[in-house]
Design brief:
By secondary structure, this protein is α/β, with parallel strands linked by helices. It has a domain at 10-103. Helices cover 33% and strands 18% of the residues. It has helices at 27-37, 46-52, 62-67, 76-88, 91-103, 174-181, 200-207, 227-230, 241-253, 273-284, 303-315, 332-335, 339-351, 429-437, 440-457; strands at residues 10-11, 44-45, 119-120, 123-124, 128-132, 135-138, 187-190, 220-225, 257-263, 288-295, 319-325, 361-366, 370-380, 383-393, 402-406. The strands form 3 sheets. It has an 11-stranded mixed β-sheet. The chain has a two-stranded antiparallel ribbon with strand order 1-2. It is globular. The protein starts with 9 loop residues before the first strand and ends with a helix.
Length: 460
């Protein structure tokens, strides 16, 4: 297959007014995008803009909404205040308003900053999260950006200038010491940002140590990435594309399982020749591509989109893995889909797949107790109820637990659900799970961790 080399060009907030693809939009719409981009990080690149966005369908094109900020991502009062400051060029007011807005956006949902950060010799380990017993997330310091940003990204704090909000490894790679001591860990997930934004030699410095005998308990290395969708040239004709693939081959030859947790939000991201070639080259290394994405209003809230996306993925040898629920952070009000509708969309798409394509689980909430699957709807004591289960849990003894919540056609997140049993009163489902989950020891350890983290963040 012939390859056309493409030099990557990034677009930021400064380019919104000048991009020819946006020239058909009214000036006030382009200004609105610039206003919102002060709060939510914006980055696109020439491949996304030129190959994935259907210019004739802007502003309703799903990839456009996936990558370019929209006015309604902010509340009307917040937008008006920020627009006035931007219009006047008042940098002080802009900074104050942006800080205020971000503070209410739940920047670290599901206990990421307080309950997921482990301690080593009494100190938080920089740049990792350890929520589930077998799996540790590693945030390489050089991989905390992406080839383009999704407007709904739950990791938006990684891309802002507020350092206190970010996760990133330290120069000493303390995470390696932590992993060596914790032999219950079988899976390491490099995440971000996007680790594959890094050059091959940088990525190698993080991955290769795990192939040594000190880490023989690590069975699986995962890499969370959007690169096959947003910059497939990374695996085809980038300067070190072959070096990346050789690193993948080395991991596989070492006897470890290598999984690329590829983030595909829409079937169009797999529609280009270069994307399909990238998938093929990755698979030739022995790595497995597992695909996942959240269900997002304005982007992919349609069963036909998921059916086509999963079908294309299976045809290319990928394994559909998760349909997530949009997390309760950022512009959740704009992108979220009610759980009842999410279940309908998932089931409609699932039923259209052959057996080999029915590997994706969903809709799944990555909540504080763990990954909560909305399995279906039933009746409890004569009343309609959601059937839920913990398919992964902070407390491993809770994994597989099935529970019920009152049916609520408007609820979009676990905290909005109430237990189906009358004796639980009005407490939310997640509170009941937390109460059941935490022993006194768990509570003491969590409180100690929060105290250490607070002390380290407090200016001296």
């Amino acid at each position: 297959m012939s390859r056309t080399h493409r030099n990557m060009r990034f677009y930021s907030i400064r380019d919104i007014e000048d991009l020819p693809q946006l020239s058909g939009l009214p000036a006030e719409d382009r200004f609105a995008m610039r206003v919102v981009a002060h709060v939510f990080p914006f980055r696109a690149n020439n491949y996304v803009v030129e190959e994935l966005i259907d210019r004739s369908r802007i502003p309703d094109d799903p990839i456009f909404r996936l990558t370019f900020p929209q006015r309604d991502m902010l509340r009307s009062d917040e937008f008006d205040a920020l627009a006035a400051a931007v219009g006047h060029g008042d940098r002080s007011a802009i900074a104050e308003i942006v800080t205020s807005i971000r503070a209410r956006l739940n920047p670290h949902p599901a206990g990421q900053a307080d309950d997921n950060v482990p301690l080593l010799d009494g100190q938080p380990v920089p740049g990792i999260q350890h929520k589930y017993r077998e799996t540790v997330l590693v945030f390489p310091s050089a991989g905390q950006t992406c080839h383009a940003y999704c407007t709904y990204c739950f990791r938006w704090p990684q891309f802002v200038r507020t350092e206190a909000l970010k996760f990133a490894t330290d120069k000493q790679h303390t995470y390696l010491t932590y992993l060596a001591r914790h032999r219950e860990v079988t899976d390491v997930l490099f995440t971000g940002g996007d680790p594959l934004i890094m050059k091959a030699d940088r990525l190698r410095a993080y991955v290769e140590p795990l192939l040594g005998p000190k880490y023989d308990h690590i069975q699986t290395i995962r890499i969370g990435t959007k690169s096959p969708a947003y910059w497939p040239h990374r695996f085809v004709d980038d300067g070190d594309a072959d070096d990346i693939l050789r690193l993948f081959e080395r991991v596989v030859r070492s006897g470890k399982h290598l999984a690329l947790m590829a983030h595909f939000s829409h079937w169009r991201e797999l529609s280009t020749d270069i994307a399909r070639e990238a998938v093929g080259r990755i698979r030739e290394t022995g790595a497995v591509i597992r695909t996942q994405a959240p269900l997002i209003r304005h982007v992919n809230d349609d069963a036909t989109v998921w059916t086509r996306m999963w079908t294309d993925q299976v045809r290319l040898g990928c394994v559909p893995y998760y349909m997530f629920v949009e997390r309760d952070t950022g512009a959740h009000h704009y992108f979220s889909v009610p759980l009842a509708r999410a279940l309908d969309i998932y089931q409609a798409a699932f039923r259209r797949m052959s057996g080999i394509g029915r590997t994706a689980r969903g809709p799944v909430m990555s909540a504080h107790p763990g990954k909560v699957l909305v399995q279906g709807v039933t009746r409890v004591a004569g009343k309609k109820a959601f059937v839920l289960s913990l398919i992964q849990a902070r407390d491993p003894e809770q994994a597989g637990r099935v529970f019920f919540a009152r049916y609520d056609p408007h609820a979009t997140w676990l905290t909005e659900l109430r237990p189906a049993s009358s004796e639980s009163g009005h407490q939310p489902v997640d509170h009941i799970l937390s109460r059941d989950r935490h022993s006194d020891v768990h509570r003491v350890l969590a409180a100690r961790r929060r105290l250490v983290l607070t002390e380290r963040r407090t200016p001296q």
